[in-house]
Design a protein that fits this description.
- This protein is α/β, with parallel strands linked by helices.
- The chain has 2 domains: 218 residues, Alpha-Beta Complex (Spore Coat Polysaccharide Biosynthesis Protein SpsA, Chain A); 109 residues, NAD(P)-binding Rossmann-like Domain (Rossmann fold).
- The chain contains 12 helices and 13 strands.
- It is elongated.
Length: 340
């Protein structure tokens, strides 16, 4: 059911939902109470079987800025893309049915895009709301994500983890038109989108303020669906990493892999299907024997001899490796990347 609004909205908020009766009112209310008022909020019912659709419909009756659509093809990709196609605003903001936007989110993000014509998108910091005490992994991810804010940081660290929390973002409508929206496949659709957009030259940065409460739950798709598994993340990131290396690695197709453990070697080996050659490994243990040359980390060649990809995942170890390489004259993004 599409309602006609006289004033063309500047912002279209895309809010897909599925069986979200316990959280949808909170999410919608946070959009209704935005300090920026010239928006439309497109609610997309993706085959809900609870009272979600009734909640959404009630908002369309009391506030004409809210529009209710349906998408029969199951999946957040299809529901989000349906909303995007219907959007009339110059800017598109994503919102999830279980999150909460701070009152100035739309205002501050729209102002940023108004004042930075060379940027195609903008995001923000988020506050993680855990569902129990055993969510250290998500908390660490949010801590890391909030720590990278500038375009330069996002660009060179995009292969570590998902650099943008999806419902924290706003982008220009022409950005989606030029680079495409979400794709459906055996990969996390949000990570693939940001990798593809960055690969095509998108500039994005984060407003250095917490503007979204990101609620965790047992039923979050990132916890329950195979396309958000580590295997799926490494598969899609390797595809775009290989493409990046073709342009930025002066020693292409050769790379040195920091991380000689079995799991690091298995993840790095995915590069070979794209013609990338692993010339050597770097390890923090002396004397490791492999079928490739292994450098003890203190004996690594200079930055004008190799390009290093670090497959070390632990955050503290990442920081130590970055500090070590920097002291050796390596420059992140020019002589090495952290990709795990």
């Amino acid at each position: 059911m599409l309602q006609i609004i006289n004033e063309k909205p500047k912002i279209s908020v895309i809010l897909p939902f599925y069986n979200a009766a316990t959280t949808l009112e909170r999410a919608i209310s946070s959009i209704a109470n935005q300090s920026f008022t010239n928006f439309e909020c497109i609610l997309i019912d993706n085959n809900s079987k609870d009272k979600s659709s009734d909640i959404a419909y009630s908002w369309t009756k009391k506030d004409k800025r809210f529009i209710l659509l349906t998408e029969k093809q199951q999946g957040v990709v299809f529901a989000s893309n349906t909303g995007s196609k219907a959007a009339r605003g110059n800017y598109i903001a994503r919102m999830d049915a279980d999150d909460w936007a701070y009152p100035d989110k739309l205002k501050l993000q729209a102002e940023f895009l108004d004042n930075h014509s060379d940027y195609g998108a903008v995001a923000c910091l988020v506050k993680h709301i855990p569902h129990n005490e055993n969510t250290e992994g998500f908390s660490r991810f949010v801590q890391w994500s909030n720590s990278i804010q500038s375009f330069e940081e996002i660009s060179i660290r995009r292969f570590i983890e998902l650099p943008i929390v999806n419902p924290s973002a706003m982008w220009r409508k022409e950005t989606a038109r030029e680079f495409g929206m979400y794709l459906s496949g055996d990969f996390p659709e949000d990570y693939e989108l940001w990798l593809r957009w960055l690969n095509n030259g998108l500039k994005i940065q984060k407003i250095p303020e917490v503007l979204l409460k990101w609620y965790d739950s047992y039923t979050r798709l990132t916890r329950t669906h195979d396309i958000y598994s580590d295997k799926a993340f490494y598969k899609i990131k390797t595809k775009y990493l290989a493409d990046w290396l073709k342009t930025h690695n002066p020693f292409h197709p050769n790379v040195a892999i920091w991380g000689a453990s079995r799991i690091s070697r298995r993840r790095a080996k995915l590069l070979e299907q794209y013609g990338i050659n692993i010339s050597c490994y770097i390890d923090t243990k002396e004397g490791r024997q492999l079928d490739h040359k292994v450098f003890y980390y203190k004996d690594i060649p200079s930055s004008n001899e190799i390009f290093v990809l670090s497959y070390i995942k632990q955050m503290n170890n990442r920081a130590q490796i970055r500090d070590f390489l920097n002291t050796k004259g390596y420059i992140e993004g020019k002589h090495y990347l952290q990709v795990s």
